[in-house]
Amino acid sequence: MGIFDFVRNAGAKIGIGKSTDEIAAEEAAADKAENDKKLAEIAKKRNAARERIKARAAAKRSAENAERRSEARKSTELEKYVRDMDLSVAKLDIRYDDGTAFIDGEAADSATKEKVILLIGNVDGVAQVDESLTVASDDGSDSEMYTVEPGDTLWAIATAAYGDGNRYPEIFEANKPMLADPDKIYPGQVLRIP
Protein backbone atom coordinates (compact mmCIF):
# COMPACT_ATOMS: atom_id res chain seq x y z
CA MET A 1 0.00 0.00 0.00
CA GLY A 2 0.95 3.53 -0.42
CA ILE A 3 -0.20 7.01 -0.88
CA PHE A 4 -1.28 8.04 -4.32
CA ASP A 5 -1.59 11.61 -5.44
CA PHE A 6 -4.37 12.78 -7.66
CA VAL A 7 -5.29 16.11 -9.13
CA ARG A 8 -8.07 17.26 -6.89
CA ASN A 9 -10.46 18.69 -9.45
CA ALA A 10 -9.73 16.30 -12.34
CA GLY A 11 -12.03 13.40 -11.55
CA ALA A 12 -15.70 12.67 -11.85
CA LYS A 13 -18.02 14.92 -9.85
CA ILE A 14 -19.89 12.70 -7.46
CA GLY A 15 -20.53 15.20 -4.61
CA ILE A 16 -17.65 14.26 -2.35
CA GLY A 17 -15.48 17.12 -1.08
CA LYS A 18 -15.15 20.53 -2.56
CA SER A 19 -13.40 21.82 -5.57
CA THR A 20 -10.54 24.30 -5.34
CA ASP A 21 -12.84 26.97 -6.79
CA GLU A 22 -15.49 26.22 -4.17
CA ILE A 23 -12.93 26.37 -1.36
CA ALA A 24 -11.54 29.63 -2.77
CA ALA A 25 -15.07 31.05 -3.03
CA GLU A 26 -15.82 30.05 0.59
CA GLU A 27 -12.54 31.56 1.80
CA ALA A 28 -13.25 34.74 -0.16
CA ALA A 29 -16.74 34.91 1.33
CA ALA A 30 -15.33 34.35 4.82
CA ASP A 31 -12.67 37.03 4.24
CA LYS A 32 -15.33 39.41 2.94
CA ALA A 33 -17.55 38.71 5.95
CA GLU A 34 -14.57 39.28 8.29
CA ASN A 35 -13.68 42.52 6.48
CA ASP A 36 -17.32 43.66 6.56
CA LYS A 37 -17.41 42.90 10.29
CA LYS A 38 -14.20 44.91 10.86
CA LEU A 39 -15.51 47.80 8.74
CA ALA A 40 -18.79 47.75 10.70
CA GLU A 41 -16.82 47.85 13.99
CA ILE A 42 -14.70 50.74 12.70
CA ALA A 43 -17.82 52.59 11.55
CA LYS A 44 -19.45 51.93 14.92
CA LYS A 45 -16.38 53.29 16.76
CA ARG A 46 -16.26 56.34 14.48
CA ASN A 47 -19.95 57.01 15.06
CA ALA A 48 -19.48 56.61 18.80
CA ALA A 49 -16.51 58.99 18.69
CA ARG A 50 -18.56 61.51 16.67
CA GLU A 51 -21.38 61.24 19.18
CA ARG A 52 -18.96 61.79 22.08
CA ILE A 53 -17.53 64.84 20.30
CA LYS A 54 -21.03 66.16 19.65
CA ALA A 55 -22.01 65.53 23.27
CA ARG A 56 -18.89 67.29 24.55
CA ALA A 57 -19.52 70.23 22.23
CA ALA A 58 -23.15 70.42 23.35
CA ALA A 59 -22.12 70.24 27.01
CA LYS A 60 -19.52 72.96 26.43
CA ARG A 61 -22.09 75.19 24.68
CA SER A 62 -24.54 74.54 27.47
CA ALA A 63 -21.94 75.42 30.12
CA GLU A 64 -20.94 78.57 28.21
CA ASN A 65 -24.59 79.60 27.90
CA ALA A 66 -25.14 78.96 31.60
CA GLU A 67 -22.04 81.00 32.44
CA ARG A 68 -23.23 83.87 30.20
CA ARG A 69 -26.65 83.81 31.87
CA SER A 70 -25.02 83.72 35.31
CA GLU A 71 -22.71 86.61 34.45
CA ALA A 72 -25.60 88.63 32.99
CA ARG A 73 -27.60 87.97 36.18
CA LYS A 74 -24.60 89.00 38.30
CA SER A 75 -24.21 92.19 36.22
CA THR A 76 -27.86 93.07 36.79
CA GLU A 77 -27.57 92.33 40.53
CA LEU A 78 -24.47 94.56 40.81
CA GLU A 79 -26.23 97.45 39.05
CA LYS A 80 -29.26 97.03 41.33
CA TYR A 81 -26.96 96.96 44.36
CA VAL A 82 -25.42 100.31 43.41
CA ARG A 83 -28.84 101.86 42.76
CA ASP A 84 -30.20 100.49 46.07
CA MET A 85 -27.36 102.23 47.88
CA ASP A 86 -28.59 105.57 46.44
CA LEU A 87 -25.30 106.39 44.77
CA SER A 88 -25.74 108.92 41.99
CA VAL A 89 -24.28 107.43 38.80
CA ALA A 90 -25.72 108.41 35.42
CA LYS A 91 -25.70 105.84 32.60
CA LEU A 92 -24.51 103.14 35.00
CA ASP A 93 -23.46 99.98 33.17
CA ILE A 94 -21.83 97.07 34.97
CA ARG A 95 -20.67 93.96 33.15
CA TYR A 96 -19.39 90.97 35.10
CA ASP A 97 -17.02 88.45 33.50
CA ASP A 98 -14.91 85.80 35.25
CA GLY A 99 -14.52 87.67 38.53
CA THR A 100 -14.00 91.10 36.98
CA ALA A 101 -16.62 93.84 37.14
CA PHE A 102 -16.42 96.41 34.35
CA ILE A 103 -18.07 99.66 35.42
CA ASP A 104 -19.04 102.53 33.11
CA GLY A 105 -21.05 105.65 33.82
CA GLU A 106 -20.79 109.15 35.22
CA ALA A 107 -20.53 109.60 38.99
CA ALA A 108 -21.75 112.81 40.60
CA ASP A 109 -18.39 113.39 42.32
CA SER A 110 -15.10 111.70 43.23
CA ALA A 111 -16.45 110.36 46.51
CA THR A 112 -19.35 108.66 44.71
CA LYS A 113 -16.97 107.19 42.14
CA GLU A 114 -14.77 105.75 44.90
CA LYS A 115 -17.79 104.39 46.78
CA VAL A 116 -19.09 102.64 43.67
CA ILE A 117 -15.69 101.05 43.06
CA LEU A 118 -15.44 99.91 46.68
CA LEU A 119 -19.05 98.80 46.82
CA ILE A 120 -18.60 96.52 43.80
CA GLY A 121 -15.07 95.43 44.77
CA ASN A 122 -16.27 94.27 48.20
CA VAL A 123 -18.94 91.96 46.73
CA ASP A 124 -18.31 88.23 47.05
CA GLY A 125 -17.11 86.83 43.72
CA VAL A 126 -15.65 90.10 42.45
CA ALA A 127 -11.87 89.83 42.38
CA GLN A 128 -11.16 92.88 40.25
CA VAL A 129 -12.88 96.12 39.23
CA ASP A 130 -12.10 97.69 35.86
CA GLU A 131 -13.75 101.09 35.94
CA SER A 132 -14.25 103.72 33.29
CA LEU A 133 -16.30 106.06 35.45
CA THR A 134 -16.18 109.76 34.74
CA VAL A 135 -16.94 112.42 37.34
CA ALA A 136 -19.55 115.16 36.70
CA SER A 137 -17.98 117.62 39.16
CA ASP A 138 -14.46 116.81 40.25
CA ASP A 139 -13.91 118.19 43.72
CA GLY A 140 -10.30 116.96 43.69
CA SER A 141 -10.77 115.03 46.91
CA ASP A 142 -9.35 111.62 46.14
CA SER A 143 -9.20 109.28 49.09
CA GLU A 144 -6.68 106.74 50.17
CA MET A 145 -7.76 103.10 50.05
CA TYR A 146 -7.15 100.79 52.99
CA THR A 147 -7.56 97.01 53.14
CA VAL A 148 -8.84 95.85 56.52
CA GLU A 149 -6.50 93.45 58.31
CA PRO A 150 -7.51 90.86 60.92
CA GLY A 151 -8.07 92.59 64.27
CA ASP A 152 -8.55 96.07 62.74
CA THR A 153 -11.19 98.44 64.08
CA LEU A 154 -12.22 101.81 62.69
CA TRP A 155 -10.64 103.33 65.81
CA ALA A 156 -7.29 101.66 65.04
CA ILE A 157 -7.50 102.65 61.37
CA ALA A 158 -8.29 106.29 62.31
CA THR A 159 -5.38 106.30 64.76
CA ALA A 160 -3.03 105.04 62.03
CA ALA A 161 -4.40 107.38 59.33
CA TYR A 162 -4.99 110.57 61.33
CA GLY A 163 -3.12 110.02 64.59
CA ASP A 164 -6.45 110.26 66.44
CA GLY A 165 -8.81 107.30 66.99
CA ASN A 166 -11.65 109.69 67.81
CA ARG A 167 -11.82 110.51 64.08
CA TYR A 168 -13.17 107.03 63.23
CA PRO A 169 -16.64 108.52 62.43
CA GLU A 170 -15.05 110.30 59.43
CA ILE A 171 -14.01 106.94 58.02
CA PHE A 172 -17.42 105.46 58.83
CA GLU A 173 -19.25 108.34 57.09
CA ALA A 174 -16.91 108.16 54.08
CA ASN A 175 -17.83 104.50 53.64
CA LYS A 176 -21.59 104.79 53.97
CA PRO A 177 -23.73 103.16 52.65
CA MET A 178 -21.32 100.21 52.38
CA LEU A 179 -20.88 100.22 56.16
CA ALA A 180 -24.06 100.11 58.20
CA ASP A 181 -22.33 99.74 61.55
CA PRO A 182 -18.87 101.04 62.59
CA ASP A 183 -18.24 97.80 64.47
CA LYS A 184 -18.87 95.58 61.44
CA ILE A 185 -15.81 95.55 59.23
CA TYR A 186 -14.08 92.41 58.08
CA PRO A 187 -10.58 91.41 56.89
CA GLY A 188 -10.06 91.92 53.18
CA GLN A 189 -12.66 94.67 52.94
CA VAL A 190 -11.38 97.83 51.27
CA LEU A 191 -12.31 101.18 52.84
CA ARG A 192 -11.98 104.81 51.80
CA ILE A 193 -9.82 106.97 54.05
CA PRO A 194 -10.64 110.61 53.19
Task: Detail the topology: elements first, then pairings.
Blueprint: H1 20-84, E1 89-97, E2 100-107, H2 110-121, E3 128-135, E4 144-147, H3 154-162, H4 168-174, E5 190-193
Parallel strand pairs: 2-3
Antiparallel strand pairs: 1-2, 4-5
Kindly describe this structure.
With about 190 residues, the chain is an alpha+beta fold. The protein has a domain at about 145-194: Membrane-bound Lytic Murein Transglycosylase D, Chain A (Roll). It has 4 helices and 5 strands. It has helices at about 20-85, 110-120, 155-160, 170-175; strands at about 90-95, 100-105, 130-135, 145, 190-194. A 3-stranded mixed sheet has the order 1-2-3. Helix 2 links the parallel strand 2 (about 100-105) and strand 3. The termini are far apart.
Outline of this structure?
The protein has about 190 residues and is of the alpha+beta class. The chain is built from four helices and five strands; from the N terminus they run H-E-E-H-E-E-H-H-E.
Observed structural traits:
Membrane-bound Lytic Murein Transglycosylase D, Chain A; alpha+beta; 4 helices; three-stranded mixed beta sheet; rod-shaped; 194 residues; two-stranded antiparallel ribbon
